[in-house]
Amino acid sequence: MGSYALLPSNLVEIQSSNISGFSYCQPEKKRLGVGKTFCSAAIQTSTCDENLAIAPSHVAEEKIGVLLLNLGGPETLNDVQPFLFNLFADPDIIRLPMLFRFLQRPLAQLISKLRAPKSKEGYASIGGGSPLRKITDEQANALKLALEAKKKNVSVYVAMRYWYPFTEEAVQQIKKDKVTRLVVLPLYPQFSISTTGSSLRVLENIFRKDAYLSHLPIAIIQSWYQREGYVKSMADLIEKELQSFSMPDEVMIFFSAHGVPVSYVENAGDPYKDQMEDCIFLIMRELKSRGINNDHTLAYQSRVGPVQWLKPYTDEVLVELGEKGVKSLLAVPVSFVSEHIETLEEIDMEYKELALESGIENWGRVPALNCNSSFINDLADAVAEALPSATAMSTSTAEEVDNDPVKYFIKLFFGSLLAFVLLLSPKMILAFKNSLL
Ligand SMILES: C=CC1=C(C)c2cc3[nH]c(cc4nc(cc5[nH]c(cc1n2)c(C)c5CCC(=O)O)C(CCC(=O)O)=C4C)c(C)c3C=C
Ligand SMILES: [Fe+2]
What we know:
Elements: E1 14-17, E2 24-27, E3 39-40, E4 64-70, H1 80-88, H2 104-125, H3 132-149, E5 154-160, H4 167-176, E6 181-186, H5 193-208, H6 211-214, E7 218-220, H7 228-242, E8 252-258, H8 262-266, H9 272-289, E9 296-301, H10 314-324, E10 328-333, H11 341-357, E11 362-365, H12 373-386, H13 398-403, H14 405-423, H15 425-436
Parallel strand pairs: 4-5, 4-6, 6-7, 8-9, 8-10, 10-11
Antiparallel strand pairs: 1-2, 3-7
The structure holds the ligand C=CC1=C(C)c2cc3[nH]c(cc4nc(cc5[nH]c(cc1n2)c(C)c5CCC(=O)O)C(CCC(=O)O)=C4C)c(C)c3C=C and fe (ii) ion.
Pfam family, one: Ferrochelatase
Organism: Beta vulgaris subsp. vulgaris
Family: Belongs to the ferrochelatase family.
């Protein structure tokens, strides 16, 4: 791990994790109070080899980059199916057992084709595409300006996981610009294997194979929901929106987070649910400190497919609250910081209609943070604080990895196994499809 000596003393205690292959830090599950969590990427420091001659840390002029990680979204209705293909082809989104990984792409083809009509309807109703790229670009510009105001001259890059600009493009640009130190900032406040974890896995694969990148000092801010600036910005938005109700004290604050399958949390150790609950605790504590003591609840939205997702489900809770006589409700999207299809269509249209049908009379929704200035300013602080802990990923070059005899035999073994499994594939594919449809 990198050194934390220069970091503020109110850090959440950290422990090492390796969900994506990069190693970075996870806040410990127990609550330790509001703090700031970040840490550097993995991290054996360099021994001398010929690559150090081109290692970025040895370049005289410092060039700092900030890489924003985000999901990406289809910009037109024609993009929807290929976007969905990219999403479902991600082994961090559909987690098949190793033996069935060869089915990932055919399965992604099938599911994306089946899902596309419903998804297209949703995107059509919000103007024919996702606003994510535009908003993320605006956030990138705002962050650059906020860092300039702190006397930090940086280039900010956007890396989307499932649509343009893809991670590979952003990384190519970073290389072209000869960046010498990089802070990686996922635009997800809470960590999930399916979001930040997936993007970090892609990054790690790119970095591992490239001599320049594997020697580039980087710091990864793996989750930041616990930062005071974020918590206060969310509380500001909620406090302001409550004032639009005629009886603000009577309003139920309804946090709605994007769900993940239960197996992520229970079998794969995804910290997402714990972090989400902690996040809500911190926001409510901040509101209480301002004398706002409304009831609140947390539910999970946007489930896809036949598996169990985190409960309670947003749609079911809305109906229950209506039945219980709740009359005023303020929806707070909490897992994402831009407006997107799940705020603009799912919450503003579907859930609003369901809530009103269920007896809730007064409905409100907190806007996404987007380019909110105190939020962007806090992200800029997070970047500035993370910079000193930037450390290079590894010392070994792509060739060294390829020449490693142990890795070579592991590859050979799994390659043979895969070839064997492929011989049986028509039967297996059929059985698997039947179980999913
Ligand atoms: C923290 C945020 C998110 C988590 C966790 C997450 C997990 C997750 N998502 C899917 C499936 C889909 N997600 C889709 C869109 C989408 N997802 C997020 C965020 C998280 N996803 C965002 C911001 C967006 C919207 C992008 C946009 O275009 O505005 C979609 C496509 C839309 C649709 O058809 O509903 C799918 C599908 C899974 C399976 C998953 C966890 C395993
Ligand atoms: Fe999603």
